[in-house]
Amino acid sequence: MAMHPITRRLPLPDGTSLLGDPKALQALARAEGAVLLRGAVSAQALAAAHKVVGEAAESVGWRSAGRGRPGVKEDPNDPAWVAWYRTVQAARAFHAIPHEPVLLAAMSAILGGEALVHPRHIARCVGPETARFTTPPHQDVWYIGGTSNIWTAWVPLVDCPDELGGLAVLPRSHLRGRIASEQAVGAGGQQVADLTATDWAWEPMRAGDALVFHGHTVHQGCDNRSDRLRLSVDLRYQRADEPVREDSLRTHFDILSWEEIYRTWPADDQLKYYWQSQALSVVA
Predict the structure, then answer these.
(1) How far is CA 203 from CA 8, 11, 116, 138, 211, in A?
(2) Which of 166, 171, 238 is nearest to 209 (CA)?
(3) Which of 57, 59, 73, 201 has the CA that lies 20 to 30 A from 112?
(4) Inside any domain, residue 203
(5) Does some domain include residue 193?
(6) pTM surpassing 0.90?
(7) 3 in a domain, yes or no?
(8) CATH assignment of the domain containing 214
(9) Burial of 22 (0-12, 13-18, 19+ CB in 10 A)
């Protein structure tokens, strides 16, 4: 189930076999607006990120004996959510995921030039019994600004079979450009206005896979119908020579400053302020 009905599930365009062929991967991604990349994140990086995110969830009482607490969702007004998110955002393992070599090379190929990894990475923790808060159909470009040529990589940190849900994309919807929106019901934010399509692309994903899609690609969350937490990250990429909006260079929700995040990192860590070495055109 999802916020908008899905009557037929289509396979996701799979670009895994094209990871060694940048031009073919770019052609597939640009034609389809979304590609599935199996095993895009290494087992080592995945384990480190999952440990941080999962243990933080346990520390605030969201997970015990493998079961997730019902009703867990993104809520900046919830002290437990804030504590969880501050812990996650301070962890180097979380910030290392978008720089994984396979994923970064794939994004550079799709973009056709040097990729800028937005440092504003997003972590998600979705508990059971949260269907009314499931993310509605939307386009990421609405929220990001700067260039419209942005790409998102959604990476689950746990296996996502049917009952755990994940993301569904509306095939080739990026070809429509920016679509009119309206206020969403339940989950908040915006949703696509007057949406009638009921054929969506969705497949079970394993931890460390990546679903990569254009900022104009319409996508929506699928309900978590299990008794477990769904843990995932949203990562954003664009060409380094295109405008980037200033808030994309800050943390999500400004939950921590970069100084607070880097306080316990090694002084010479290469991920610290990495974007400052790129000649960016920063816009308001």
Answers:
(1) 12, 6, 28, 19, 10
(2) 166
(3) 201
(4) yes
(5) yes
(6) yes
(7) no
(8) 2.60.120.620
(9) middle
Range of the domain at 159: 8-262
**Residue 240: CB partners within 8 Å, gap ≥ 6?**
113, 114, 115, 116, 278, 279, 280
pLDDT tens for 122-169 read 999 999 999 999 999 999 999 999 999 999 999 999 999 999 999 999
Please indicate, yes or no, if residue 283 is contained in any of the structural domains. Answer: no
Neighbours of 226 (CB within 10 A): 18
Report d(CA 198, CA 196) in Å as an integer: 6
How many residues would you count in the chain?
284
Q: How far apart are CA 260 and CA 42, in angstroms?
A: 27
b/e code 138-176 from CB counts within 10 Å (16+ = b)? bbbbbebbbbbbbbbbbbbbbebeeebbbbbbbbebbee
